[in-house]
Amino acid sequence: MDARITALSALIACRKQNAWSDGSLKEYIVRDRLDRRDAALATRLCYGVLQNRMLLDFYLSSFLKGRLKDLQPVVADILRLGAYQLVFLEKIPASAAVNEAVDETRRYANSRAAGLVNAVLRALASAAAEKRLPEPKDLAVRYSHPAPLVELLRDSLGEARLEPFLRCDNEAPETVVQRNPLKTKGTDLFLELQNQEVSIRRHSWLPDCYCLSGTGSIETMADFRDGKFYVQDAAAHLAAMALSLSPGMQVLDACAAPGGKSFSAALAMADRGRILACDIHPHKLELIEKGAERLGLTCITPVLQDAAAENPEWLGGMDAVLADVPCSGLGVIRKKPDVRYKSLDGLEALPAVQRAILENVCRYVRPGGTLVYSTCTVLRRENEDVAEEFLKNHPEFAPEPIPTPAALGLENAGMLTLLPCEHDSDGFFICRLRKRA
Q1: Which of 376, 372, 350 is closest to 361 using CA atoms?
Q2: 175-231 has which CATH code?
């Protein structure tokens, strides 16, 4: 099966079922039995179209007599997929991209639409080759972030950081993984991954963290199945590091799924002690359990528990509590490109949810223990505002500097925000608090 058909199938599912692209891609890569190279290409095509959809529509509209939105939806999908290859992928010949798009249109639509696709894409290919494509004036179209989202990000990031942040959102995302020291040495894993024709680099500031590309479906890799590494961004790993754990501790991961921070915590504790990994969805607890088993970790106990609901048995009993709360997810748009097109309605209610979780889980921290609050967003109202309000209401907690790798060079007073355009990581907020003894 051609990688373009797989990518198109995923794009159609995202449009018709409001599905998330990462889940749809995994499903169709398995369905079409793609090898690693074709799986990587299908992923790049699908993500590339989503990352640049507004810009692609802007280009295509220059060569259409009518309106793009008046076309049969699948024809618009095919046009975007072809346009992305013509504008952004130099290694794919223009003739191949156009011919494949025409064949797809005959298959999914009709011959008349195929003629339109052929004419529009050939005109666009000529303009792209001659470097005479129109240039959008506003940031929203240029970086394919809806205007209301651009303004929301501007309020939190400021003007100087806004465009670099938007630009970074459209870069090809790497898969970031952490080595499992229980099962392999760092040099061994690095060489093994290199020998599998995977593009790999060491992370710029986090030891035992590698950035991979060209992996296709990572679950098919032997080293992953053997538990030699797990997928986790450097920023999420830093949130777990902020707990400053040691063997034998009692730890609560209040919103644990899919389990990466619990895994990091268990390894920091040499798999000795107890970690309660909580979630409100039973199927997500199964993911945590299977992940721990794959990595050879025994100190993690998955627990069905609402983070905002009290569990009397845990009051004052935890050495460390991590609250990586539900959030708007605007720090991970480069890895989940469809986030940018989701409605902003309801986001204003998130801080209330986050405060409720923090108010509840703080009571589980023993005197002298640590509480870490984190999100994968860059909005101040979900980050600093929530943490600062909590501190006003809880004088028994005080911010404490987050220990960071020297190579990161990011001093802090207990709160820090990481940005993909500056810190080689997801957009992430971390706040570390100490409960007074």
Answers
A1: 372
A2: 3.30.70.1170
Active site residues: 376
pLDDT band at 142 (very low <50, low <70, confident <90, very high): very high
pTM above 0.85, yes or no: yes
Domain residue ranges in the chain? 3-136, 137-170, 175-231, 234-435
Tokens of 16: 């018709």
Q: What is residue 219's predicted lDDT score, i.e. its pLDDT? A: 87
Burial 294-318 (b: 16+ CB within 10 A, else e): bbebebbebbebebbeebeebeeeb
Alpha carbons 75 and 83: distance in angstroms, whole number: 12
Give tens-digit pLDDT for 29-53. Answer: 999 999 888 999 999 999 999 999 9
Confidence at 214, pLDDT banded by 50, 70, 90: confident
Residue with tokens 């355009």: 421
CATH 1.10.940.10 fits 3-136, yes or no: yes
CB 160: neighbour CB atoms within 10 A? 8
